[in-house]
Specification:
The protein is 84% helix and 0% strand. The chain is mainly alpha-helical and 100 residues long.
């Protein structure tokens, strides 16, 4: 190889793209994740449509059960809300729980 060939090779090597292009890799990964996101959204939408159709079909039976269980559900919800409030209040008042 002559000196001119070595100089030309050095010039072309300086302008050559890197062996690994981070922008290309990022764009490819971004496209793959976006495709996966679209499939997940489509699957969740289909599941929501099926669940909505089933609920619509069984609504007369479900509504009777909900009407009958309303007092029990309300009492359970009130007890859970009170317990959560006490836990939150206890955590706020405990000086050792605040680590700064």
């Amino acid at each position: 190889m002559t000196e001119a060939d070595r100089r030309l090779q050095a010039i072309f090597a300086a302008d050559a793209p890197p062996a690994r292009d981070p922008a290309f890799v990022f764009a490819l990964l971004h496209r793959l994740e976006r495709r996966r996101l679209h499939w997940e959204i489509a699957a969740q939408a289909a599941l929501a449509l099926v669940a909505g159709a089933l609920l619509w079909g069984f609504w007369p039976e479900v509504s009777q059960v909900l009407i009958a269980a309303t007092p029990t559900v309300a009492a359970c919800a009130a007890a859970l809300a009170a317990a959560a409030g006490l836990l939150f209040l206890g955590r706020m008042l405990d000086p050792l729980s605040h680590k700064g």
